[in-house]
Design a protein that fits this description.
By secondary structure, this protein is mainly α. Helix content is about 60%, strand content about 5%. The longest helix is centred in the first third of the chain and has 25 residues, at about 45-70. It starts with a helix and ends in a 6-residue tail after the last helix.
């Protein structure tokens, strides 16, 4: 009796007993199953959805906590705010720096977009002024971004890559304003990041006491960049009072790398 082809295709085979001289001794058929190696089962779709949802919850919680408190937030705090376990947090992100990288890559791209938008403006002075104002406003609204730009050690390489993309754009802003006669000729492109750093320090120093204080010093800085002006620009934000200065100094913690 033959073995149906279909069965052989499904993994069955036939064995025939033989004598010592190699001739067939019988037509006995031994039908034995051939077991194919099993493939690992894919995780259920619901589990994959849960993992994706947990990741988004962690990112959202981290975004809010970093913006409010800066980068000195622990994974435990982020997991608690997201409503997930710490183990889940570490499965989605190996460590806090990995989470920071995922969250702020997009924010750094927005920083580049600010410079690109300013370059596209026709008025050279207004373009430089707009870039400085908007870039510092981003830091003031997001303490985590401020910490990242000021010098978070784990993000130095990422920030350096963004800076390399931005410097040619900033150079265009400065040169155009100088060619228009609006900006003093001894300013260079490397001055602008340091001006942003100066204002960023004001943001960090006064954030809890007078969050808009940086605008006062931006006005003073812009007046210093101009080649001429009819009169000093009005300062829209008052200076700190003595008690506010004392409070800011008592709360201020110098940045640690």
């Amino acid at each position: 009796m033959g073995i149906p082809a279909g069965r052989r295709e499904r993994g069955w085979r036939r064995t025939v007993a033989r004598t010592g001289d190699g001739s067939s001794a019988s037509c006995t058929l031994n039908i034995v199953p051939v077991v194919s190696p099993s493939r690992p089962a894919e995780p259920p779709r619901s589990l994959r959805r849960d993992a994706s949802r947990n990741r988004e919850r962690l990112l959202e919680a981290a975004r809010e906590l970093f913006a409010e408190r800066g980068l000195n937030v622990t994974m435990d705090e982020i997991a608690r705010a997201a409503g997930v376990g710490v183990g889940t947090a570490y499965r989605r992100f190996g460590n806090r720096d990995e989470l920071i990288g995922a969250l702020f890559e997009e924010r750094m791209q927005e920083y580049v977009a600010l410079a690109e938008d300013a370059v596209a403006q026709a008025d050279a002075w207004a373009a430089l002024e707009r870039y400085l104002e908007r870039s510092i406003a981003m830091q003031a609204a997001d303490r985590g971004l401020h910490d990242l730009l000021i010098g978070n050690a784990s993000a130095l390489e990422r920030v350096a890559r963004i800076r390399d993309r931005m410097l040619p754009l900033i150079d265009q802003l400065v040169r155009r304003a100088q060619e228009a006669g609006d900006v003093r000729p001894d300013i260079t492109v490397s001055d602008v990041p340091l001006l942003g750093l100066m204002l960023g320090q004001v943001v960090g120093f006064s954030h809890d006491i007078a969050p808009d204080l940086w605008r006062r010093y931006l006005t003073l800085l812009l007046d210093g960049l101009r080649t001429s002006r009819a009169a000093p620009s009005p300062l829209s934000v008052p200076p700190l009072e003595s008690r506010q200065l004392d409070a800011a100094m008592s709360c201020h913690r110098p940045h640690r790398r």
